[in-house]
Amino acid sequence: MPAETRSLADDVVAITGATSGIGAAAAHQLVDAGAKVVLGARGAEGVDKLVAELGEENAVGVACDVRDPADCQRLIAAGVRKFGRLTGLVANAGIGAYGGILDYDDELITRMIETNFSGTVWAVRAAVPVLLEAGGGDIVVLSSVAGLRGGADEAVYAATKFAQVGLAGAMDRELREKGIRVTAVCPAGVSTEFAMGLGRTPGMPALDDYLQADDVAFAITTVLRQPRRLRTTQWALWSNGQSS
In the chain, how many domains are there? Predict the structure, then answer.
């Protein structure tokens, strides 16, 4: 008999980087599946707009810069205050740039490291105590195939994604027996605003062959819907139009 998927009707999932791209697609799919969502992104206006789209009965949001540990704590607290619990975290916030190791200034490099890696750590540290108190849950770390193989003209970005994969793997070993499943979702190129103007341009032909944000959101939702006896530690995904 095939395994039955879990209902998400009792789930409350926090999402960082929630107002665009993969984060917004995941928020919509999770609400469609019956979950409640806790939305964090740097722009308060975008957060408020997405909450309105999803309905205040289904979503709550706060302005959250994941580089600030206190912001991550406020995000998780907002979810618990609104819905009384937290069952999952999607650590999605991230930025990227394509180019050689010398192509960008120190500020962008620092922001990339602090957003992609430190921001994941701060979000996880805010969520884990609440998940442990609830007896378990899920953490999904949005990494990249760049964190599995690297690539030319993305050295620092790839390094942050390797760090996320390492973090997720170590947390799986640390938290699995405590009821927390940890998954690194590692998509190839996704047709979003990611890195636009920093190696990508609007309308570039390559985007036609990339994954869509909804494809990655499908992976996230599928991971969360696994029966509790299962766990997926790593999921790499490509479109059929992309070479692996």
Answer: 1
